[in-house]
Amino acid sequence: MTSRKSILYLFDVDGTLTKPRQVITDDFKKFLLEKVLPKVSVGLVSGSDYCKISEQMGGEDVACKFDYVFCENGVMQYRAGKEISSESITTRLGENLTQRIINFALNYMSKLELPAKRGTFVEFRSSMINLCPVGRSCSQQVRDEFVKFDTEHKIRQKFTEALQKEFAGHDVIFALGGQISVDVFPVGWDKTFCLKHVEAQKFDEIHFFGDKTTPGGNDYEIFNDSRTIGHAVTSPDDTKQLLKKCLNIE
Ligand code: M1P
């Protein structure tokens, strides 16, 4: 038996509901809204901000239909299109440490030679700093080239290790969020953060679906949390097949 009152399905976005940084297919969107949402409560939890999540869901009018939208790992919470709560990374880390991280990252990235570099190497969000060696303003083609180069040369892994070494002893996490960047946030501000926002609802089961569930990935903590039933997926198609099984959908 499934029920909207007692069961919550939480979904990562990139690689789980959509291809990385792309918009959800019409077919999968229809499936989620018409087949999944009537059966269970649904929440989205992503490292991205509200603007990107809404865009990837096909618009804010679609994002509003889900019960919860947890942005920046749930440190920013939206319901029905309205911001409910948020936290500030500078308040938590302090201006001094925030600047040291940014300065170290810019210095490190300035020495990298990549197939291409574009703009916006540091994206400062409310509760997270996103560091991007290729530049967030890159085209899909430059993104794809970087992904190949990174797989071969481990650019982000080495960058993350250098950051961890430099800031050892500070309460900061450096995680490989998506394909081209590194997410920086205080300890505890990983995706498990969103679980405190649903405590009051006393769901009997909270399922989490994500594709970055191994150590260092940004789904790892919530996937392994004792409060969730974790499902590792490999693509949006894989997620859809799993949902059909879990919810007995033809
Ligand atoms: O999948 C979530 C990640 O999406 C983006 O990652 P990238 O651009 O590197 O593929 C970023 O918004 C990142 O912060 C986020 O965790």
Give a structural overview:
With 250 residues, the protein is of the alpha/beta class. It contains 9 helices and 11 strands. It has helices at 26-36, 50-56, 60-63, 89-93, 95-110, 140-153, 155-166, 220-224, 236-246, and strands spanning 7-11, 41-45, 68-71, 76-79, 82-85, 122-124, 129-131, 172-175, 182-186, 205-210, 229-232. The strands form 2 sheets. Strands 5-4-3-2-1-10-11 form a 7-stranded mixed beta sheet. The protein has a 4-stranded antiparallel beta sheet with strand order 6-7-9-8. It starts with 6 loop residues before the first strand and ends with a helix. 1-O-phosphono-alpha-D-mannopyranose binds at residues 14, 20-21, 46-48, 130, 177-181, 183, 218.
For the structure shown, list the relevant keywords.
seven-stranded mixed beta sheet, binds 1-O-phosphono-alpha-D-mannopyranose, globular, 2 domains, Rossmann fold, four-stranded antiparallel beta sheet, Hypothetical Protein, Haloacid Dehalogenase-like Hydrolase, Chain: A, domain 2, 250 residues, 34% helix, 11 strands, alpha/beta
